[in-house]
Amino acid sequence: MADRPTLTTTAGAPIPDNQNTMTAGERGPVLLQDYQLIEKLAHQNRERIPERVVHAKGWGAYGTLKITGDISKYTKAKALQPGSETPLLLRFSTVAGEQGAADAERDVRGFAIKFYTPEGNWDLVGNNTPVFFVRDPYKFPDFIHTQKRHPKTNLRSPTAMWDFWSLSPESLHQVTILMSDRGLPVAPMFMNGYGSHTYSFWNDAGERFWVKFHFKTVQGHKTLTNEEAESVVGKTRESYQEALFNTIENGEFPKWKVQVQIMPELDAEKTPYNPFDLTKVWPHADYPPIDIGELELNRNPENYFAEIEQAAFSPSNVVPGIGFSPDKMLQARVFSYADAHRYRLGTHYEALPVNAPRCPYHHYHKDGQMNFFGQKTGNVDAYYEPNSFGGAVEQPAAKEPPLKISGDADRYNHRVGNDDYSQPRALFNLFDDGQKNRLFNNIAAAMAGVPGEIIERQLAHFDKVHEDYGAGVRQALKEQHGYEANAIPVTGKTPQEAAE
Ligand code: NDP
């Protein structure tokens, strides 16, 4: 025992006994002055922090971004120059499930990356799908409510999901991906990541380009059917954690090919679709993906809570050479992600080791709960700016070129003049017969218990994507639930009730 460290109080004093509570007599009761007992119990009560409202269940690791391509004419970002190697943290997650949810559940996966660049942290907070369910951030809290538990039953509600989706046709593209094979990957290594939003690049000459980021799995896509997932979940709820942790521990480092699509700034006025609409992709034929390098995961965290649970990603973290776009969802996330971390982790969440930049950094934030860093201004007398005491000053060279915006302030109806069907159709046409059948069956399974009027409203959208799409889902509904298309009056009955 001589070479083992001494157990101490958090104040550093040695603890003589960590086995037996202090009591009055052998049989008790316990004395209030046994402060170490109280300290242990009080700390246990405080071990949980609020879990993320979305993306609560996650798995993560460290790695490296290596740039081999040359996109220096588009961006001055140092992390994206040829030959650069940037350390990073990548956290994968499901969206809807709580922290104890099973990993192998059908859901969109988060794909959030923090690049520790020499110019500050750049966070790309993406998903394993290139699009999202809504295009207007006004609808984001409503959408998330449909994915969470019903206030009375405390159960997740397929009725709420399909009610919202059928009333929001912009969700069709993402719903089709979610219900397709790619909606249930085997493990994080076997899926793509997408920055999803349109961001911008800017170069030394002050020119701006629109950009989308893609991370293509080198391991290939591997997915589970619903039946396979049931069997996996029956054996382990932690299949992603096990797979990711073990593969890295075994030295088999997962990799992703990194690509960008680039759109010249003025093209945004010419495309038939809004290139800033998060429910749309940029067709590859119009904007071919350019290979720029490789992302590898090669190190597991030492402490899950400190490094993955406390990791705080926010699209607000950009670096010189990378900027935002008019994408309404991105604009809202720039606010709401950082705000979520202030609530979840505290005011100084960016000072936590996993979130802190790896380059020198200075700011004038002062005081606040858990301020353990003192002052980061560069001089003790410089706690305001401007000052005469050598405190940190602005860096005009980091100035971004102006973002061209115009228009009258109004609430524009985002459902007018938007084609919500062509891109889901292009995707549907990519599927072979087996993929289409699994799509139909996954949708029918997810519609169990949904009232007929909602099902009919959703089927009308599938019909508009492709007649085979609507027909295929109708057939699957009939086989799984005895549902007869159009045979259900608008009563709010479940397909099961209607079939009886
Ligand atoms: P392309 O044929 O050039 O590209 C199709 C892309 O679709 C592929 O590169 C692949 O993207 C992805 N894809 C292929 N099979 C599947 C599948 N089973 N499930 C999900 N995605 C698949 O056509 P477009 O660029 O015109 O896109 C057509 C449709 O493909 C889009 O409407 C969209 O739904 C989907 N898609 C398009 C992407 C894009 O950025 N253009 C990205 C992802 C999907 P990847 O190489 O990323 O795996």
UniProtKB/TrEMBL annotation:
One Gene Ontology molecular-function label: catalase activity
Protein family membership: Belongs to the catalase family.
Domain called Catalase core: residue spans: 8-393
Ranges where the record places region Disordered: 1-22
GO CC terms of this entry: cytoplasm; periplasmic space
EC number of the protein: 1.11.1.6
Origin: domain of life: Bacteria
Protein name: catalase
Organism the protein comes from: Nitratireductor basaltis
